[in-house]
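User: Before I run my own analysis I want an independent prediction to cross-check against. Here's the chain; please return only the structure tokens and, at the end, one sentence I can use as a sanity check.
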Amino acid sequence: MKELGFDSRAVHSGESKPLKDGAIVLPIYQSSTYEYVGEDDYDLIRYARLSNTPNHLALAGKISELEGTQDALVTASGMAAITTALLTVIPHGGHLLAQQSLYGGTLQFLKDDFEDLGRTVSFFTDDQIPDLERIAPETTAAVYCETITNPLLRVADLRGLARVASKCGWVSLIDNTFASPLNCNPVSFGFDLVLHSATKYLNGHSDIIAGAVAGKKDVIRRIRHKLNHLGGSLDTHACFLLQRGLKTLGLRVRQHNQSAMDLAESLSSHPRVSRVIYPGLKSHPDHARASEILNGFGGMLSIEVDGSPEQIDRCLSRLKLAVIAPSLGGVETLVTRPVTTSHRGIDPKFLSEIGLSEKLVRISVGLESSQDLVNDFRNTLQEL
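Assistant: Structure tokens:
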């Protein structure tokens, strides 16, 4: 289906051909257990925990097609995708080079749990990418980054990072959650594995938890084997909902892109906002690179607000459309101060080093009327 446009692939890839009993929508296969027909490989035995029901396979096919990879795998959460992939490609005693500014759950796993699992990690800043080959420990096995970082929305030299990883023989992993496959296909410039918290834009309706890994068949096979032992399989009903959500991904993300740009431009002139962080703005330090790498700048933006944390929280609670909540990527607009949610519990000194302050507010721009959102934020912030 590679000759088709994104929206056509979102609707039709991964679907059953021929249709199951004529049903336009793939049914939910609620069965946990399937008839044994002589499979000669443990991972091929039909069993829901092994992620090979018709729902799992159809969903993986759609994600693989949208990311432009050979294969894909769905998991019980974004963290299940991240942790299983890392534990697969980095052997015991191996080392990971990780981007310094990452989602808090990933950071905490790497900082708190990675060493206990026999792996080590060191963090690099974006300006260190040209020097990674020189400064990397000999045990380095992989590099890890985010297409658009959470929540500081930086866009690193991803092509350069992929080139360094390929030259050194490291597996390159990238979390593409903030961008989505519409705005970026990281394998097109050299990444080996693409990860998603499918809870967010891929599903888009704030009603399931899911994750995904996409890449080459041989690597996905290894990750699937590890996942089968760790047990992070996705429920078939969640598979059904995620497959449904993916069909409208292009339509939704285009609107997220536009509304986020509208809100970012409007808040840039607001007297109570000291800083707006959005890759689509010319003021963003990575705007030129983002314009080259991305097909759209995404539905996420962050702002720094003039006021104490207590004042900011009270202000956010008065928003009429946006809800204070820690997730993102849904049809409704969500706001949060990351130091109280996604990055809570991380050493304040480390947060200061990466530039994450108590006054930073992350906004997941939903699908409400763009002008309504602009009015809501401008009017509410004016009362601060």
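Sanity check: The radius of gyration is 21 Å.
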